[in-house]
Specification:
single chain; alpha+beta; seven-stranded mixed sheet; five-stranded mixed sheet; 8 helices; 14 strands; 37% helix
Length: 279
């Protein structure tokens, strides 16, 4: 299996670079035709769709027995069930809203699972050309340099990352801002958000932020980045303190258990519809 996993890693990195060039070309050429999905703030572009098609076609040619879960394929009605079969979980453009506005944080996210466990994580920050990679048990890297989470133990001296998502239901928005208020009043040094879950996770893995939390993300947003965090020495959990369930659309990623546990105490939680819920 080790040889297959390395082959998968090499192919995922190559695919991420090819996809990143498509994204950069679209930004340069202004080719960002915008459509919407679940709401007027849940955006998709033709580039998202083209990148996903590129990755899926290449995976099926190189690894015909592997399955693929892709954001745009699921949006079009395909299943989001994770089985024991080798499965690529891809977000063709993580940070589509950023991409639409040329806000310079956009990522290609590719996580590959074997027996329902992420074994390979690749996040390519394509506008600034940084490649984040991880293979289970082999460490996490950015452009070949090892990553290590922050050693900070005090949440009051921490930066916390989060996002506001695309759900504009007033009760959900109230919970999001109640959580934000409580975290700011701890107080923390600051709250930040790159506009992409994958890159927020990489910020934690890099030691630039102590934690990232969000409710409402999807499995393709976090599959790759979660492995990068854990391989950099971080911890992952559900927003109520239990183990991370990638299909639950809820996550805390932190540099250590103490900061993660503090966040759990402050968050106003809710439960979005699971990614693997029957349609």
């Amino acid at each position: 299996m080790a040889d297959e996993v390395q082959d998968v890693m090499d192919h995922a990195v190559a695919l991420a670079r090819r996809a990143g060039e498509m994204v950069r070309s679209a930004v340069r050429d202004g080719g960002r035709c915008v459509m919407t999905k679940s709401s007027t703030v849940d955006l998709v572009t033709q580039t998202d769709q083209k990148v996903e098609q590129l990755i899926i076609q290449s995976v099926r040619e190189r690894f015909p027995k592997h399955r693929v879960i892709g954001e745009e394929s699921v949006a079009a009605g395909e299943s989001c069930d994770l089985t024991d079969a080798p499965t690529w979980i891809i977000d063709p453009i993580d940070g589509t809203t950023n991409f639409v506005h040329a806000f310079p944080f956009v990522a290609i996210s590719i996580g590959v699972c074997f027996n329902k466990r992420v074994e390979v994580g690749v996040v390519y920050s394509c506008l600034d050309d940084h490649m984040y990679t991880a293979r289970r048990g082999k460490g996490a890297f950015c452009d070949g340099r090892p990553l290590q989470v922050s050693h900070q133990q005090d949440i009051q001296q921490s930066i916390i990352c989060t996002e506001f998502g695309s759900n504009r239901d007033p009760e959900v928005v109230d919970k999001i801002f109640t959580s934000l208020r409580k975290i700011l009043l701890l107080p923390v040094h600051g709250v930040r958000g790159a506009g992409t879950a994958a890159l927020n996770l990489c910020l934690v893995a890099s030691g630039s932020a102590e934690a990232y939390y969000e409710i409402g993300i999807h499995v393709w947003d976090v599959a790759a980045g979660s492995l990068i965090v854990s391989e950099a020495g971080g911890v992952l959990m559900d927003v109520e303190g239990g183990p991370l369930d990638m299909m639950s659309r809820r996550i805390i990623a932190a540099n250590n258990r103490s900061i993660a546990d503090t966040l759990v105490k402050e968050l106003e939680t809710f439960s979005p519809t699971r990614d693997d819920a029957a349609p």
